[in-house]
Amino acid sequence: MLSPGQTIGILGGGQLGRMLALAAARLGLDCHIYAPEAESPAFAVSAASTVADYRDEAALARFAASVDAITYEFENVPVETVRFLEALKPVRPGSKALEVAQERLAEKRLARSLGARTAEFAEINSLEELRDQVKRIGLPAVIKTNRFGYDGKGQAKILIPEDIAPAFAALKGQQGILESFVSFDREVSVVAARAEDGTFAAFDVTENEHRHHILHRSVVPARISDKTAAEAIGIARKIGEALDYVGTFAVEFFLVDGAAGGEVIVNEIAPRVHNSGHWTMDGAFTCQFEQHIRAVAGWPLGDPARLGSVEMINLVGADAARWLEILGDGRAHLHLYGKTEMRDGRKMGHVNRIL
Ligand code: AMP
Are residues 254 and 173 in the same domain? Predict the structure, then answer.
């Protein structure tokens, strides 16, 4: 168990690392950020930083020697990096969660093994395999790279047989996963935390609206029946247990309305704090970042209960230029990530409002 004054090392220096470091600071803990990019948003709010490649073992060893526990804010950190660090200091969550969450196939297999529903899916290694599996699964379908996809990157829709060859070419030699296209009514997520002793605390189910594959708005409570919400939280709990998870994580679901109160279909697991949990910074007794820091420090979790109906809107690219106007609403909670360059599609900040 860590004590106030000790240091948590964070792999990744984006806005999630920044908000983790801010939460740690409130609890009297320091953070040391390790990131390959010289201009990382988390550096400005952390006690120490290292700019080095994730495969630089000398830099990793120095980093490990300077911290008391390690976590990551980004699921594309190489598994080998986490394994290397695990031999030196406690890493929470560990490499097992990272391994599963880096592969869409492994995520879906895990969800199925726990009795959860997923889209129909198949592993794709060749054009011939893709043609066969399209026959089995049917159209429309979606093909994605098995690894390293996020925010809709590395994805193509297959609507007609003529789309098959170009969709396969778009994988650029990487292994793919073919998924049946789910005609969902809404997208929802469960953000939850699990402590070292197995205690589990889920935030209320969040409803998420995407624009151009990027999260635009999250609202709680989600339009979901109590029964289906409990089912979604139960699935997240089982996933956390199966991965022996310590920290905050998210499970994204497709929600299909139906006579029995609707059903949830697992889409993705994120082994980290998640954009759809940003509302908790101002809308819950304990926020997702604090929950993660508590868990990594080996401390008890806080109460995740909601303080009201909450809306989170992402400020993407030029949206962030509206900061002064947003400040004009004295009840809006503005969060800016300190990114200097306002590129298209770049997450610059978010606004929380208690409705
Ligand atoms: P992902 O990268 O898997 O989170 O996918 C990004 C977005 O694409 C999702 O949030 C959905 O809106 C859409 N999408 C992905 N997979 C499917 C699917 N199998 N059926 C329908 N829509 C999908």
Answer: no
Same domain, 228 and 333: yes
Pair 171, 298 in one domain: no
Residue 104 included in any domain: no
Ligand 1, atom 19: closest residue by C-alpha: 181
CA of 146 to the centre of ligand 1 (A): 13
Q: Considering the domain boundaries, does residue 99 fall inside one?
A: no
Looking at the structure, tell me whether residues 32 and 124 fall in a common domain.
Answer: no
Domain that holds residue 193: 186-354
User: Are the beta carbons of 158 and 134 closer than 8 angstroms?
Assistant: yes
Residues 216, 305, single domain; the answer is yes
- CATH assignment at residue 71: 3.40.50.20
State the distance from the centre of ligand 1 to the C-alpha of 119, rounded, in angstroms.
Answer: 10
Q: Which residues line ligand 1 (CB under 6 A)?
A: 119, 142, 149, 152, 179, 181-182, 187, 210, 213, 267-268
> From CA 157, how far away is CA 151, in angstroms rounded?
15
CA dist 68 and 134 (Å) reads 49
Separate counts of helices (H) and strands (E) for the chain? 11, 18
Q: Which region among 146-160, 188-202, 262-276 has the lowest average model confidence (pLDDT)?
A: 146-160
3-class secondary-structure state, position 216: strand
pLDDT tens digits for range 251-292: 999 999 987 889 999 999 999 999 999 999 999 999 999 999
| Ligand 1 atom at shortest distance from the alpha carbon of 149 | 2
Reported as a single tens digit per residue, the pLDDT across 6-65 is 999 999 999 999 999 999 999 999 999 999 999 999 999 999 999 999 999 999 999 999
**Residue nearest atom 2 of ligand 1, based on CA coordinates:** 152
What do you get for the CA distance between the two ends of the chain, in Å? 38
